[in-house]
Every structure is written in structure tokens, then in C-alpha cells.
Amino acid sequence: MKSIKTLSYIFAATLFVMGLSSCDKVDYPDRFRPTSGVPTVHSVRYSSTDTYIDQAFMEEVVCILGENLRSVHDVWFNDQQAILNTSYVTDNTLMVQVPKTMPTVETDKIYLITAAKDTVTYDFRVLPPVPSVREMSFEYAQPGEFVTIYGNYFYQKEGGEPMVVEFPGAKATEIKNLTMTSFDVKVPAGAQPGKVRVTTASGTSASDFYYADNRGLLFDFDGTNGLYTINHGWHACDLTAEGQGVGGSVALIASNGEQEFTANGEDWQDGKCHFEYWAGNWQDPETYGTWDGRRLIDLVDFTNFASMCIKFEVKVDPERPWTGCPMQIIFSSVTQVSNGNAGVLDIHGNVLAGCNNTYFAKDKQHPRYMWRPWKTAEGGVYSTNNQWVTVTVPFTAFTDNMDGTPATGTLTPESFSNLEFFFAGGTSDEGKPCKPYILIDNVRAVPVR
Asked: What local confidence, expressed as pLDDT, does residue 265 receive?
């Protein structure tokens, strides 16, 4: 039996080797066979339609029409090589995807290169996608001020159509420092609140943000379009008239006199550097009144808070920069803290928690955002060089605990009734001691896009 099995294995192995050696002799009629000579290009069209084109966006699939296209070994658009799949090449058609990388040198040509290094060129322009308009450095800039807009695919070709920037109600006339991902623009006279539109040769896109955003305004510190003209909690930060450029009064959240933030995780700065808004007016039952004292959820719909963000303008004095100790940004419900006596019912049937400073303590695991801009600032020193800038924090980033570790609690739409900004917590490596001087204005809750 052993000898029979051995002979069987030898016979099977011999057949396998013979099969391998004969594979390259099998004729596959559909197998790609390159040709010699040079190709000829007649035209280019979209791969899915008979529309003939002389330009296309990056990553679009186009079909090159011509003769002897199986002689092509490489395809380049400008100075970017495309991926050539011979399964989509015949004598008369060559389907290829335009490269997704912007060219370093724009020649506006396709290069078809053979194995013998012969090159055929064809006039064809590659366009970036339509602009992506994501952020503005200072959303409340006044007409006549320059701001920086960030995004992608901003361009204008020399000698070609200029890029156009339009604010609601007015077109910008001055653009400078244009790069693919940013540019500076002077806010035109007559600009109104709303989306900014940018037009290039690729098309037009509207911004994710609103210029002079007047939606979802929670606190303007003037008592005209938002809340807070007096303190609503235990601590009252100062209001100051240093808000030229954003309008009226602004909140001053700064270290108290000569007191220095130790930045070792033990700071709990109250007093003048704690902005505190707790809903309620010491009523029984609590009605929240008609102005200050209302729940923030009565001003803004937080039902879809996961697709929203908090925005505000900030100015940090370069003479008193921010180098350590986090600023905690905390929203809360009236069942966690409120401006009034604990145990009181409100008109919605909620049992109010009353005034306290324990609901956000370490063992409660209440999610908040720990704002630490010096972490990414040059040299670990954050200031805005006495300029106002817009800060955006999506509510999905509210995931921190008191000590900077991930919080285990969850937020609900009712969690957005109160708001606090204050310096405290973090870990033992929270930057360097400092005495920051920080101005904040126009706190608002708006959609991310």
C-alpha cells in the first residue's frame, strides 16, 4: 500500500508541474497585448456619457479616444502620474482617473508615454474640486477689516478668471495672500449676516459658517440680542467696554489681580475669573422670567446638539498670555444646578437643584470641554495679539472629566440650560503658571455646518 500511495503522489506532482509549465502556452483571447509605435488622441469624453470635454475635476474618470492606445505605458496629467489599468485600454479607448493630487507645475496637458519613451501630448485642463469654505478667523469683523478664510481649493490661475468672494449683500474687492487652503479678504461695506460664497473656475461653494452670525445667540453681554446684564450665580465676572470690534460690553475672565494660576491641576479660580449663568430667578414655582434667568434651551433648540457647536469671540492680551491651567466650559441642566432654592419645582415639573458647586466635581463624571489652546500654540504661549478671533467647539468634543480624563456621563438636550466658563482642574502637566487676561463675547450655539 505504501508503494502505491507513493507512486500516486509522484504522478500527481508531475501533472501539477506540467500544468504550471504549460500555463503560459494557453491562449487567452482577451489578454492585454501592448502594441508598438505611438498613439494618436482624437478627443476626451466623460467615461459615462458621450459629452466631450477639454477639462475635468481631480478624481473624475475620463475616456481618451484615439488610435493605437494599447501602445501607452504611462499617463500623466500635468506633472501627476495617473494609475493605468490595462483592463480599461483598447486600441481606440483608454479609461483613466484624473489624479487626486494638485500639480506642482500646471501645463494643462495630458502626456501619453510609450514603453519606448515616445511622448504624445494633448491639451487638457485639470480643475480642483469646488472650494471648501470652512472657517473665518473673526466672524464678527467689521466692514473694512481684513479676515482670513480657511478651507481648501482656493485658486485663480494667472491670466484666468479671478476668484470671487461674496458676503451677503456685498462683493469683496480686496483679496490677498491667496493659497490653496487660505486667503485674506477685506469685509466689504454693506456686508450682512449669512454665508460667504467663494467662486473659482471649478464652481461656487457657500461657507460652513455665518458671517456676523446672529443665530443661536446666548450671551452678547449687552442685553440686546442675548442674555447676561447682571450676575446669575454665585460669581460675577466683570463686564468691560473693551469690546470695540464686536460691539458693546464683553466679559472679562481673567486671573484675579496678582493671583497666579499654578497650572498644577489644583487651581479652582472663582471670583472675577468665573463666568456663571444658572437659570432661575429665586421664584417658587420657578417661571424663569422673560429675560435674564431663562433656561438656555428656551432660547435655542438643542434637540440635535450632536450636530451643533458653541462659538464665541475671544481676545487674549499678549502682555498677559495664557500658558497653563485649563478653562472648563460646562453646560448643565436645572436639575443639576439652578439660581434659587433647592427642591423648588419649576413650571415644567422639574425639581431644581439650587445653587451648588458640586455637580461637576470629579466623582460626578459630568462631560465638559477643557479648553487648553496653549497646548498647540507656539512655545506653549497663547495670545491673540490683541486681535479678536472666533473659537469653535463642537458639542461632540464635550467629553472631559474634571481632571482631564474621559468623562463617563452623558449629555442630553436638557443638559444645555446653564453655562459656565472657569479655570480649574486638569492634570499636573497643564502648562506653566500664568496670569491670563481674556475677553469673551457673542457666545452662541449653532449648527456645525
From this structure: 57
